[in-house]
Structure formats: C-alpha cells, structure tokens
Amino acid sequence: MKKKLKELAEWVGGTLIGDGEVEISGAASLDDAQPGQITFIASPKYLRKLETTKASAIIVSKETASAGKPLLVTPNPQLAFSKILHLFFVKPYQARGIDPHAWISPTALLGNDLTLYPNVYIGERAHIGDRVTLHPGVYVGDDVSIGEDSLLYPNVTVYSGSVIGKRVILHSGAVIGADGFGYVKDGTKNVKIPQVGKVIIEDDVEIGANSTIDRGALGPTIIRRGVKIDNLVQVAHSVEIGEDSLIVAQVGIAGSTKIGRNVILAGQVGVIDHLEIGDHVMVGAQSGVAQNLPSHQAFSGSPALPHREWLRIVATLSKLPEMKRWLTEIEGRLKKIEASLSQKERRP
C-alpha cells in the first residue's frame, strides 16, 4: 500500500511542509527508515538525526530545518506516527470461521463472524460476541461473557463467570478469574476462604502476557474502560483499577485496593491491600505503596514518598559515608573538649 504524504497529513490532522506528492509505503524509526518510509522525532535531542535519516518524510512537533525533506508538523509526533502505523500495518478483521477441533458447549451463545482456532474450549452458557477471535488453547469457562471485537491470544484462561467487554485484548498466558489468595488460620492450618466474586473487564482494555486478574472474594474485581496492563502483573481479589490507567510490568496489587483514573504504576511497584490511590497519580519504578496516595501527585521510593522529597533523599545517600566520617571527627573533638574541661574542673 502506498499513500501520498498529503493524504497522511489529512489522516493525522497535521500540517504539511514540502512536497505533498511524495509517496510513502511504510514507516520506521529514525535510524532504520529507508527511502519511501516516514519516521518521527518525539524529542528535540534527536533533531540532529534529521541530517542522517534516509526517510522520505519526518513527523515533527514544530517547523524545523529538514535537509530538504518534507515535514509533517503535529503537536504529538508519536501519536501521529502511531496512527500511520495502524494505517499501514493493522489489517481489517476477516473472520476465519470455527475450526472443527474447537469444543463448544451446546448451551453457549455464539455471535457472528467469529474466528475460533483449534483446541479452543467454550463452556456452558458462555456468550461470545460478534467478530471475536480465540486463538489455540483458549479456555472460556461456564457463564463467561466476551464482548464483540475482542481478541484472546493462545492459552488465555478465562474462569467461570468472568465478564469481558468489547475490543478487549488478552495476550498469551493471561489468567482471568483465578481464585484470590484468601485464607484464615484454624490453629496452624490455613483454611481456604471461598472466592465467590468475579472479574469484570470493561471495554478497550489490554492485558499483557502471563498477567493474572483474580476474582473478587465477595464482590467483583473491576478493570475499568481503557486500562492497559503490561506483562507479568498480579491484580488481587476485589481490586478496582480506574479508567485509562497504565500498569507496567511486574506490578503487584494486593486485595481490595482501589486505584483511580489515569494512574501510572511503573515497573515492579508493589501496593499493599485496602488502599486508595487517587486520580492522575504516578508511582515510580520499584516503589512500595503502604498508605493512601492523594490525587494529582507523583511518588517514588519504598515506602513511597512525594517524588521531589524522594529525590532529595536519594541525592543524600551517596554523601552518607562522607557525613559519617565528618560526624565521627566531630564526636572525637567533642570528647577531647569534654575531657579537657573535666580535668580543669578537678584542679584545685
């Protein structure tokens, strides 16, 4: 497929500078782009590469020198580049039908234009919406609902009673609706607490490979609209994650915690149970959240502190050996002064 640059400018709502008749057949990074491809510059520090990139056109955030190459100017070059990637590389959905090696309960309700690959299992009373794709090895338990245009990659497991919204993407190995980690002591024995809630995943959610969303202990675990969850994430029972939040790889969220809208939890963040994290909060990588976090702030460290305070603490850490030596010297001087004063007091 080829598109003229002026067509791409219209597609992304950008301003064209230069020859709009240039034909673009693909997209690539600044370093890898070849003639006929378009690339982008998201940060001013990469502007020097304008002189060396072989791309036929460059998406930038403001007009700049371009070594004679046409520019597509837009406030968010990365977003515009993403839209162009969709145009060139994301193919329209085409239903492949139901493979005879898929097992489907007679009580399941199937939508239209499905793609069900070999070794898919669909349980009793499950409801599969239109244009859903289930790759090999997907398990759909009893009474599960999957909304239209959703995509489940190989070996995804959806436990009974789970609700999956529209346009949801579940990557390989994701587990939806496993029992929450709930036990009570009877003497020295651990007695399992039945996990009788469910998981509700709203529309336009994406969940990464080998991530687990546990069912609620009593009420539901809820992943709100537009949430994006990375690989290897653990979401415990009865957690609620607010709309459009980003949960990065290896995050662990303990039970009954409520996370607000547009929250970002960076890699390996740990959150203890029964907390509330406000809207538009950012938590830095490897932070440990042990208390409620108010809205519209950034936090880092373990325990998590306001980010600027944490930066001051980190800046001090490298100076601790020097400070220790200095304090030891002061302590020695003080002891000498005290000894000298004591001797003077004992003199007649």
Descriptive notes:
The protein is an alpha/beta fold and 348 residues long. It folds into three domains: 3-89, 3-Layer(aba) Sandwich (Udp-n-acetylmuramoylalanyl-d-glutamate--2,6- Diaminopimelate Ligase, Chain: A, domain 1), CATH 3.40.1390.10; 97-308, Hexapeptide repeat proteins (UDP N-Acetylglucosamine Acyltransferase, domain 1, 3 Solenoid); 318-348. 17% of the residues lie in helices and 28% in strands. The protein is built from four helices and 40 strands. Strands 8-11-14-17-20-25-28-31-34-37-39-40 form a twelve-stranded mixed beta sheet, covered by helices on one side. A ten-stranded parallel beta sheet has the order 9-12-15-18-21-26-29-32-35-38, with no helix packed on it. The longest helix has 27 residues, at 320-346. The termini are far apart. The model has no long low-confidence stretch (mean pLDDT 93).
Keywords:
348 residues, alpha/beta, Udp-n-acetylmuramoylalanyl-d-glutamate--2,6- Diaminopimelate Ligase, Chain: A, domain 1, UDP N-Acetylglucosamine Acyltransferase, domain 1, 3 domains, 40 strands
